[in-house]
Amino acid sequence: MTQCCFLRVHPLFFWFWSFHHRMALALCLQVLCSLCGWLSLYISFCHLNKHRSYEWSCRLVTFTHGVLSIGLSAYIGFIDGPWPFTHPGSPNTPLQVHVLCLTLGYFIFDLGCIWRFAWRKSIKKYHAWRSRRSEEWQLKHNGHLKIH
Question: Is the peptide bond before 91 cis (omega within 30 degrees of 0)?
């Protein structure tokens, strides 16, 4: 037993604590590798399709993710097991964890694509809508536009 800050802690606790830190680090590394894989696929699509826009390459990566995740999920559900309807809540298999990390890496990539492509468009639409609404309000309440 180890005494720490007036608490008695069993040495097994420290092993357990470090074990979970190692597992979390391994999962973060898998997600980071997945993100790097999706980014490299995006860059290769950009180089292969120079005549298309960058958003086109992003959509190709999205399509690839959809096909890959459907295929892997079908393999896990129908072939590798366990069947989710007969064993609900059972511990995840290593393949399921890998697919989850692959998908999380894609979602981080997709968040970057949303930030790069859709965010700018939505901000422009919002400002255009906001200025038009402001003009309509001024016309409704003042009867004329007040332009400075």
Answer: no
- CA pseudo-torsion sign 128, 130, 132, 135: negative
Largest interatomic CA distance in the chain: 82
| Contacts with 78 (C-beta within 8 Å, 6 or more apart), sequence order | none
Indicate if the alpha-carbon torsion angle 67, 62, 109, 123 is positive or negative.
negative
Half-sphere exposure (CA, 13 Å, Cβ side) for 68?
A: 14
Domain count, the chain: 1
Where do we find the tokens 């470090």? 18
| CA distance readout (Å), 127 to 3, 111, 123 | 61, 22, 6
Q: Which two tokens stand for residue 70?
A: 């459907």
| 82 cis-preceded (ω within 30 degrees of 0) | yes
Q: What is the pLDDT of residue 132?
A: 61
Contact between 73 and 99 (Cβ < 8 Å):
yes
Tokens of 97: 């964890």
Q: Is the pLDDT of residue 37 over 80?
A: yes
Q: Please indicate, yes or no, whether the overall pTM of this predicted structure exceeds 0.70.
A: no
What is the span of the domain harbouring residue 102?
Answer: 2-146
